[in-house]
Amino acid sequence: MIELKDVSYSYGGGELFSQLSLQLAPCSFQFLTGPSGAGKTTLLKLCYGDLRATSGTVTLFGQDARGIDRDGVALARRRIGVVHQDCQFLDHLPLSENVALPLTVAGRQSEAAGNLPDLLNWVGLSAQAEQLPPQLSGGERQRAALARAVIMSPDVVLADEPTGNIDWEMSQRLLRLLIELNRMGKAVLVATHDLNLIRAAKAQVQSRVLRLRGGRLQVAGADL
Ligand SMILES: Nc1ncnc2c1ncn2[C@@H]1O[C@H](COP(=O)(O)OP(=O)(O)OP(=O)(O)O)[C@@H](O)[C@H]1O
C-alpha cells in the first residue's frame, strides 16, 4: 500500500538517510526503532506524504507521490491514520469532537453519530467523551489520538512513539489496540524506543523490527 524505494532525504544539510527501502503491506506489523535523531519521524512523514523524498520513489496506494497534487495527497492521507508523537488536540473542544474532527473536516460529520460511540468504547474513553483535552491523562490522550487516527477507517496506521509518556500497563493497552487494528487487516508501523514494548508485541503478533541508524535501515535480528 505504501512503498519507499531507494529513498534519500535531506533537510538541507547532509543526507539523513539514503537508498532506503520500506514496504507497508496489508496486515503487516512493523516496528521502527533507532537512536534519537536517526530519522524515524522523518521516515513516517515520507510515508504519509507530509515530506517529499529528496530522491527515490515513494508510492502511495499505487501512485507515485511525485505525481500527486495536494488534493491527491489529502485523499491518500485519509487512508492513513497517524498518531503523532505530541498528540495535539483542540483544547476548547470536547474529546468526542476532537476524535470526530477528521470526519468533520472531510464533510462527513453525519457518520460520527454511528461510529463515534463504538470507537470511544473501543479505546475505553466513553466516560470522558465530554471532557476537554487538558483534563485528560497522558494515557487517555494517547488512546484519544489513536481513536482520532482510525475514525476514517484507514488502511494504514502509523504511530510515532505512542507509548512515550505512559506507564507500562497503559502501553500494553495501547499495544493491544494496535494489534487488534492489525488483525483487522491494517498495515501498522510503530516508531518506538521502547524495546520492552517490542518484546511484548512479538509474543502476541507476527512482527518485524526495523532499525534506523547511521542513515541505514536494517531488519533487526530475533535477539533484539
Ligand atoms: N524540520 C526540520 N528541519 C531541519 N532538521 C530537522 C527537521 N526535523 C527534524 N530535523 C532533524 O532531522 C533529524 C532526524 O529527526 P527525526 O525527528 O526524524 O528523528 P527521530 O529518529 O524521530 O528522533 P526521536 O527519536 O528523538 O524522535 C534530527 O537531527 C532533527 O534535528
From TrEMBL:
GO terms for molecular function: ATP binding; ATP hydrolysis activity; transmembrane transporter activity. This is Putative ATPase involved in cell division. The keyword Cell division applies. Keywords: ATP-binding, Cell cycle, Cell division, Nucleotide-binding. GO terms for cellular component: plasma membrane. It comes from Wenxinia marina DSM 24838. It comes from the Bacteria. SUPFAM superfamilies: P-loop containing nucleoside triphosphate hydrolases. Pfam families: ABC_tran. The keyword Transmembrane does not apply. Residues 2-224 form the ABC transporter domain. PROSITE patterns: ABC_TRANSPORTER_1 (PS00211), ABC_TRANSPORTER_2 (PS50893). InterPro entries: AAA+_ATPase (IPR003593), ABC_transporter-like_ATP-bd (IPR003439), ABC_transporter-like_CS (IPR017871), ABC_transpr_LolD-like (IPR015854), P-loop_NTPase (IPR027417). GO terms for biological process: cell division.
